Amino acid sequence: MAADLSDSVRLVDGTSLCSGRLEVKSDQSNQSDQSNQSDQSDQSNQSDQWWSSVCEEDFDQQDAEVVCRELGCGVPSVLQGALYGEVEAPMWTKEFQCGGRESALLDCRSSGSDRSTCSPGKAVGLTCSEPVRLEGGASRCAGTLEVKHRGGWRPVGYYGSGSHWTLKTAAVACRELDCGSAVSIRRREKSSERSVWWIYSDCVHSGSALRDCLTSDSSSSIVDLICSDLLLQPIITVSSSMYGVSEAQQQGAPVLRRSTFTISCSIQPQYPGGSFQLTFTSSNSAHNDTQPAVNHSAHFLFPAAEPAHQGSYSCVYHLHVFNHSFSSESRRLSITVLDPRPLIIRAIVLPLALLLLNVGLYVYCKANRGQMPCRQKNTELVRYKTGVPAAEEEEEDEDEDEEEEEEEGAE
């Protein structure tokens, strides 16, 4: 299947009008170096033109945006070589340099290229999203179903010959929107008739995309649709006095045993109300705790961290809206409870041991006054302990030597 809304670009061998291998209509006068390959190409009605594939190395995301727009499709979702078969047609020999806002690919600047062929598997394969949207709702997954076709957005009519709206039919729209499954279909009456698209359910059920099953008409009855992925994903964080705030992460957030920590659940403002359920799972237990959402968030306090609190946590946001219940789960947060005793040993016992060793050396050196090796050991220990630069230590050593000489002279 190939898109036919443009007379200069098309997507072939794809699953819908908005996917396939990209081909550009080439003028023989500009591609004379490929005239010997014209018998292999997909000829247009004009004998001096043919369709050429485009090499992946000469095409980027901005070029893809222009192609999708030119074909009346949505934004590019996949751009990769060798997705839609090997290339038999000749290759386009210029690199496109689109800014991303052009209305047609051939309106873009292009640079000359020495390439007359392309390596196997390197022809551009492009998938554009279907031009479907839900308008007027508080979420991109709820609202009036609209489809862009032939350059304009129109709502979808509720009734029509062969147009029987069921959850199965609506599920196709939700899937194309990446909004999960269909939850509710509602007929909404407008004050007057307007241009609409009828969507034939039999065509949709056969596996075709929505925009391939359209016919133009007028009606005052339009389709309002709600999909299951109505809610945004909640955010989960943990805060403790020792480590501050940590977001959900694979390696786990540490808290000290018997310290206070708080797990917070929040969601971007979308609908008022709702509740947060904090779920906990470990190797030997699982439980839930629920709090109402206040200012789109909830905070779960743990007064004293214990080994039993170590495990995996997630926030599940629950909301009842449009006469249906919805939920959305955050990423998982792993909590690790650390024993503070090793930290105490490092913070207290080790400095105390160094202090006692230093005092012992000092007493030993006093008993053996004047022996330089002793002074060097003592000086090295002090340097190790305090981190004082060697130059400063040498000056202090000289001052101490002078004081001791004065004391010995006085005796």
Task: Count the DSSP helices.
Answer: 6
Give the CATH architecture of the largest domain: Roll
The overall strand count is 22
Domain module count: 4
Q: What structural category arises from helix and sheet content?
A: alpha+beta
Low-confidence stretches are: 28-47
Percent in strands:
35-45%
List keywords for this structure.
Immunoglobulin-like; Mac-2 Binding Protein; 6 helices; alpha+beta; 22 strands; 411 residues; 6-stranded mixed beta sheet; 5-stranded antiparallel beta sheet
Describe, in plain words, how this protein is organized in 3D.
- The chain has helices spanning 61-70, 167-176, 201-205, 341-367, 372-386, 390-410; strands spanning 9-13, 19-27, 49-53, 76-81, 94-97, 109-112, 124-128, 132-136, 142-149, 152-155, 182-199, 214-227, 235-240, 244-247, 253-256, 261-266, 275-281, 286-292, 297-302, 311-321, 324-329, 333-338.
- With 411 residues, it is α+β, with helices and mostly antiparallel strands.
- It folds into four domains: 9-128, SRCR-like domain (Mac-2 Binding Protein); 132-227, Roll (Mac-2 Binding Protein); 235-338, Immunoglobulins (Immunoglobulin-like, Sandwich), CATH 2.60.40; 341-395.
- Strands 15, 17, 18, 20, 21 and 22 form a six-stranded mixed β-sheet that branches.
- Strand 20 and strand 21 (324-329) form a beta hairpin.
- The longest helix has 27 residues, at 341-367.
- Mean pLDDT is 77; it is low at 28-47.
